[in-house]
Amino acid sequence: MHSIIGLFGLLGGLSLCSAAPAQNITSDVYFYGDSPAVYPSPEGTGTGSWATAYEKAKALVAQLTDEEKVNLTAGVSSTTGCSGVIAAIPRVNFPGLCVSDASNGLRGTDYVNGWSSGIHVGASWNRTLAHQRAVYMGQEFHRKGVNLLLGPVVGPLGRVAEGGRNWEGFSNDPYLTGALVYETVQGVQSSGVGVSTKHYIGNEQETNRNPGVEDGVEIASVSSNIDDQTIHELYLWPFQDAVRAGSVAIMCSYERINNSYACQNSKTLNGLLKTELGFQGYVITDWGAQHGGIASANAGLDMVMPESTLWGANLTTAIANGTMEASRLDDMVTRILATWYQLNQDTDFPAPGVGMPASAYSEHQAVIGTSSDEKGTLLDSAIEGHVLVKNTNNALPLQPSRLVSVFGYDAKIPDAFDLTFTFLSSSPPIQNSTLYVGGGSGANSPAYVIAPLNAIQQQAYQDSTAVLWDVSSQDPDVDPTSEACLVFINSFATEGSDRPGLTDEYSDTLVTNVAGKCNNTIVVVHNAGIRLVSDWIDHANVTAVILAHLPGQDTGHALVDILYGRANPSGRLPYTIAKQASDYGTLLHPSEPQTPYGLFPQSDYTEGVYIDYRAFDKQSITPQFEFGFGLSYTTFDYSGLNIQKSNGTTSEYPPSATIQEGGNPHLWDEIVTVTAEVQNSGSVDGAEVAQLYVGIPNGPIRQLRGFEKVLIASGQTVQVSFSLNRRDLSTWSVEAQQWQLQSGTYQVYVGRSSRDLPLTGEFTL
Ligand code: NOJ
User: What's 481's DSSP letter?
Assistant: First the structure.
């Protein structure tokens, strides 16, 4: 394996994203020849809900000197713990901005909650809960004086099975990710805090994400070479939903796209984002991701973090000598200030960074970010991302008042904990404590962590269960009267590197050791990404398995509620679990530099849209557990499929569509509605995730195009309804440069998962 120490490859506590010397490695080679330059950079127009904010921003910009304008476009070093800071302009009462990580809780400070991670939200398939989680999380950032939350993540989407940051995003399906990012953006921003949906675009691996030096030779970031149809149908899709939801910022990524750095790629920034999607906010760099000076400004970049050695006074020089238009600088600054007004941060916001201590043990004021009204949502969001994938012999739920034995390093809390806790260890048995979040800038330090073993003890206290435990041995002794043996393992992932594999021998041996001695072995895996289970899933003594993902600080309580049946599992896999790693084919590992592109690593997305279940379906590979799969303590029956074309459905676009945030507004025209009945045919209440898949003519066999999570009382039947819009039913046409409905027969499937689809039908367009 190639070993490259990237400029950002060595991570350390809160300095994770410290600035690096700017690199000037660029290449103008377009691998696919389909990334034409797009200039000039479109000015924000203040469409839709942005009109007033733009008016106010323009009035303020008119009062600024050139130097003040330039200062708004790049971060400065600060005495607070904000990940990035824009300096104040006291002369016009602008207090500056504090921007901070991340998608599942505020990092680097105290008195905040550790929320469920993106993958957990993806596994819960619950729009309402995703929204509520985001509202509360946003409120915490607000109390702490953070103007911009650095998240949510929809890139990586999850192309590479071993991707180190897949857990920060929701799912490797663009529809599911798009639906959940939409709610997240709206939820956070309703609290007056902005989001910077990231990492735009093609940030699908950590390996070679940054330029590096090997044997004294500079090596560029990996280039994600993506064709026009694939970028639209997979990778741009959730960003489109984020923009439609009003995301005030978009963070450009470290990678190159078709050989041009993401933060100076005029096709993706000026073209796709600002022209096609009508984006009104500003583009902010990932930390140190600026590699070109005026080129990046002209390509559509608006703000550089954490500082810029390339912009500053050079911007005004460039304007003076005609390399850059003055209107570009005005547009950059207008976009930045418009977001401040759009979120009402001019009238209702604490001092930027007020709750962000410079370091863990420095003197600082106690600024309470949490609030007791969040508790219910915090716990629900921790519960719903648990996916029960095996449950035999009525193993679950457990009966109170019996003996349970607890094994495995993942059952216990970490030995030490402070504000710099970011889970940076990575060798098995991984963290050697319970994994409730992945590592890197997405990790935070919650107010508390209830580990599974603590919550099981509390259960014992309440109902006279007896508990024995050994959470250090790989081959523990087992009391033969145990009602159940609970084994806790995890599968770690972190920013900065891709995962070494989808299993680890230590953990698999621990499971089989316990299963060898206990005929009711229940395995709980806290997994920061896909985790294979084939070594023990068919073991007769492994009676139940829960993929518990990354639940956040309420992890133990959430799990015990499920184990004892107070909560009925309702999570579904937001990715595919293969029987063997090789089933992921070329998408198992990240791309590595190869001759003749050693200095310019390439990652060719030749698979097109065929990632995860689209690929398994196409290649007829039977997965261990398919996308969308998950068990409940009850059962659900499906009937009554109905497919209705909307009146006036036409494959031609209605005329005169002015681009709005999110693109052509006719993409959201409803074309078809599908309804079905779902009955809870079991004896306990439970929530089902009814899923709709569509086979678009000339497209993959089926793609998720609708889901509805419904709580159904035992014996009751409810109707679920799915609205299919123009984008849902279209294919991106490279020739026409727009989404086009296909003439022909569409297949419709409704059911419990991508492979368990009892209702089928079709319609023709
Ligand atoms: C680098 C990470 O890629 C990004 O996600 C994060 O927001 C910044 N560092 C700031 O910490």
Answer: T
